[in-house]
Design a protein that fits this description.
heterodimer, A: 461 residues, alpha+beta, OB fold (Dihydrolipoamide Acetyltransferase, E2P), elongated, B: 329 residues, alpha/beta, Rossmann fold, seven-stranded mixed β-sheet, five-stranded mixed β-sheet, 11 helices
């Protein structure tokens, strides 16, 4: 059985030894006590003593090789015996190029030549000497170049100064949408400040594709950041919105109704509720209602009066649902989600408000689960907060109708006494699927909704 | 405030400390009867006599060793190097013994030693007389190094160095000896060791420099303001070790850009350390890579026209700032 002779630890501080000279050749007979090699440690050159009787079968570490303590240097065994395979020690003069071994395919041939010239060099020995020139030639003295090298092979890493990176993060800006004017197109502080000023590059609103971003906005010195051409990748959400709404608008023949509601009672109710409740702790019943909460409640309540609105077209049949699963639109970055309040008809205002709040939070955090976004029977959208007075949504399939709630607008109205007074008017539109419902059903529903909204006490019962 | 030269400021500091503390004495080659090779100690021998101002033989290892021994026994030697390049022949005393005494005695002994003298290139005295070894000295824990750029700092730092209980190296400059500047009159004017000084406030970029480079940086800053409306802040390290990290970091956090200027050679120079410090502690505040200007990495060049460009001057600094800020010259 062949013994592998390892690099001995010849001084306290020795971690590697350099094989200076072999005193025996492969095939030589060796006896215990023979000196077989000279090794240079960190302190001195010393001879390595052999403790085995036999034949020097194989030299693993060539002269000049640097071998860690414990690393194989040779094998001693009986004549004719095969030497064990070992992980070859570094044969290199430099001793530091191990990780270059698999680097360069082209160098393989050259290397073989080199091996031949060395006679017995191991096949598995790491290549050496190859790396020096090729490595150095890549390096540039130019600090700017070396600063960015390695970042941009793929063209994907965005070059930005550490400061710009931090500022963009703090401001919620998408670095890839900011054109860098620093060296090598690096995004620098000034670029981020300009984006902040121009209100561009908001996260999620912009393209991930920096290659086409903004030649115009960037040129330093332009006082006003211009608009820019860009391509925006279609997100999964946008693709889903596109599919659903094209199918809705092409398959469902829309009709449109609008009713004007006196918004004052609702506003008064909301004010009363919030004045009394918003200041209380949750365990005391503290809560704050939005206009939307009240409308959702009213919309669900109105279905009880006109259940025909709560239907779906199923091709060969129409389904009328016994419960109202009320969807409502939530604008999110780059899209719109419609979370669903289940069995809204059976829920009180407080619970609807709580669920709506929860769902809005999840929608904005992109944390809605699929079952929280599906199975609706009626949908409410609201653009009132943007000051839109009236509009018509596209039906959210498979619903038969969608409500479009506008802003409550202060305007002159003629009251029952034919006097002109200040009124608070809210317009609610309804888009209906004419396959499922007719104008009369939509009108009845809107009337019922109007009555509830104008007499919000009806929501209490 | 009196306007005096850098040379006079050091002389005043030495005289005041000789006067104040009888344990203070000066030793060096030609410091006494010849009044100093660069006349820094002019008149002191006459005034304070043989015991307080001592001419030493040309044997730096001998008289620095003597200084260490004297300091351990309670004296406060101020040893002059005619050129700081001569400290190398006394390396064992100057760095090995001086830095280790307090440590190896477990704090029982102090080594209140000052080694001072010119450490600068640019004066056509050749490669063996032109070193700026502040980085070498600062590498030894236990040693302090200050590099004053102005007469006021020269005086205040010299007095603090003499009063300090550890070995302090005060690296002066023959180029600066004739410079005039305001120096506060009060006798107890001290500049604390380990405190950098913002020599000029600015918002666009921080130049961090020491020694004569501070003055070149200030010149560049003037030009940059006048010609390009660029506001450069100039931080004078004054003390290489201990290093005033806070002032450096504060300035870089304010301006987001750092240019480091020194007459040291670039490799393992003081600014290599400063550069590391900045990226480590102000990384998220950097709006661009830290730039360095150092001496051209070669022995001090003897040919005067080439020697002139070996050291960074105001023009080079100006160009570098413009490049960093991407402003066309």
């Amino acid at each position: 059985m062949a013994e592998i002779i390892e690099m001995p630890k010849l001084s306290d501080t020795m971690s590697t030894g350099t094989l200076i000279k072999w005193l025996k050749k492969e095939g030589d007979k060796v006896a215990a006590g023979d000196m077989i090699a000279e090794v240079e440690t960190d302190k001195a050159t010393m001879e390595v003593e052999n403790f085995e009787d036999g034949v020097l079968l194989k030299i693993y570490a060539q002269e000049g090789a640097s071998v860690p303590v414990g690393g194989p240097i040779c094998a001693v065994g009986e004549k004719g015996e095969d030497a064990p395979e070992v992980d070859a020690p570094d044969s290199g003069d430099s001793g530091s190029d191990k990780d270059e071994s698999s680097k360069d395919e082209e160098k393989e041939e050259k290397d073989e030549d080199e091996s031949k010239s060395k006679g017995k060099a191991e096949k598995s020995q790491p290549k050496k000497e190859e790396s020096d020139e090729s490595d150095e030639s890549d390096k540039s003295d130019d600090s700017e170049k070396s600063d960015s090298s390695g970042d941009d092979d793929s063209g994907e890493r965005i070059k930005a100064s550490p400061l710009a990176r931090r500022m963009a993060k703090d401001q919620g800006l998408d670095l890839s949408a900011i054109k860098g004017t620093g060296p090598n197109g690096r995004v620098i502080k000034n670029d981020v400040l300009k984006a902040v000023e121009a209100g561009t590059a908001k996260k999620g609103s912009a393209s991930k594709d920096s290659s086409s971003a903004a030649p115009a906005a960037a040129s330093a010195g332009t006082a006003v950041a211009g608009l820019e051409d860009k391509e925006i990748k279609v997100s999964n959400m946008r693709a889903a919105i596109a599919r659903a709404l094209v199918s809705s608008k092409t398959e469902a023949p829309h009709f449109y109704l609008q009713i004007e509601v006196d918004g004052a009672p609702l506003a008064k109710l909301r004010k009363t509720l919030n004045d009394k409740l918003a200041g209380l702790a949750p365990e005391q019943g503290g809560v704050k209602f939005t206009v939307n909460d009240l409308i959702l409640k009213a919309a669900a309540e109105a279905v009880r009066r006109v259940p025909a609105i709560n239907r779906s077209w199923k091709g060969d049949k129409i389904v009328q649902y016994g419960q109202v699963h009320l969807a409502f639109g939530v604008a999110v970055d780059d899209g719109l989600l419609t979370p669903v309040i289940r069995q809204a008809d059976g829920k009180g205002l407080r619970q609807i408000a709580a669920e709506a709040k929860d769902l809005i939070g999840k929608a904005r955090g992109k944390k809605l689960k699929p079952d929280e976004m599906s199975g609706s029977t009626l949908t409410v959208t609201n653009l009132g907060m943007f000051g839109i007075s009236d509009f018509y949504g596209i039906i959210n399939p498979p619903n038969a109708a969608i409500l479009s709630v506008g802003a409550t607008v202060k305007q002159p109205v003629v009251n029952e006494k034919d006097e002109i007074t200040i009124g608070y008017r809210m317009k609610i539109g309804l888009s209906g699927d004419h396959r499922v419902i007719d104008g009369a059903v939509g009108a009845q529903y809107l009337s019922a909704l109007k009555e509830i909204l104008e007499n919000p006490a009806l929501m209490l019962v | 405030m009196a306007i005096i030269t850098y040379r006079q400021a050091i002389k005043d500091a030495l005289a005041e400390e000789l006067e104040r503390d009888e344990n203070v004495f000066i030793m060096g080659e030609e410091v006494a009867e010849y009044n100093g090779a660069y006349k820094v100690t002019e008149g002191l021998w006459k005034r304070f006599g043989d015991k307080r101002v001592v001419d030493a033989p040309i044997s730096e290892a001998g008289f620095i060793g003597l200084g260490i021994g004297a300091s351990l026994l309670g004296l406060r030697p101020v040893i002059e190097m005619m050129f700081f390049s001569f400290v190398y022949v006394a390396w064992d005393q100057a760095v090995n013994n001086a830095s280790s005494m307090r440590y190896m005695s477990g704090g029982l002994m102090n080594c209140p030693l000052v080694i001072r003298g010119p450490a600068n290139g640019g004066t056509n005295v050749g490669a063996t007389h032109s070193h700026t070894p502040e980085n070498l000295i600062a590498n030894f824990p236990g040693l302090k190094v200050v590099v004053p750029a102005t007469p006021a700092d020269a005086k205040g730092l010299m007095k603090s160095a003499i009063r300090d209980n550890d070995p302090v190296y005060v690296m002066e400059s023959t180029v600066l000896y004739g410079n005039e500047g305001e120096v506060p009159d009060e006798e107890e004017f001290l500049v604390p060791i380990g405190k950098a000084d913002v020599k000029r406030e600015g918002s666009d970029l921080s130049i961090i420099a020491h020694g004569r480079s501070v003055l070149e940086s200030l010149k560049a800053a003037e030009k940059l303001k006048k010609d390009y409306n660029i506001d450069v802040e100039v931080v004078d390290l004054r003390s290489i070790r201990p290093l005033d990290e806070e002032t450096i970091i504060k300035s870089v956090k304010k301006t987001n850009r750092a240019l480091l200027v020194e007459e040291n050679k670039p490799f393992c120079g003081v600014d290599a350390q400063v550069s590391h410090l900045i990226q480590r502690r102000a990384f998220d505040y950097l709006d661009g890579p830290i730039h360095r200007l150092s001496a051209v990495d070669a022995p001090a060049i003897y040919s005067p026209p080439i020697e002139k460009i070996q050291l960074p001057d105001a023009d080079v600094i100006t160009r570098e700032v413009l490049e960093m800020l991407q402003v066309k010259a």
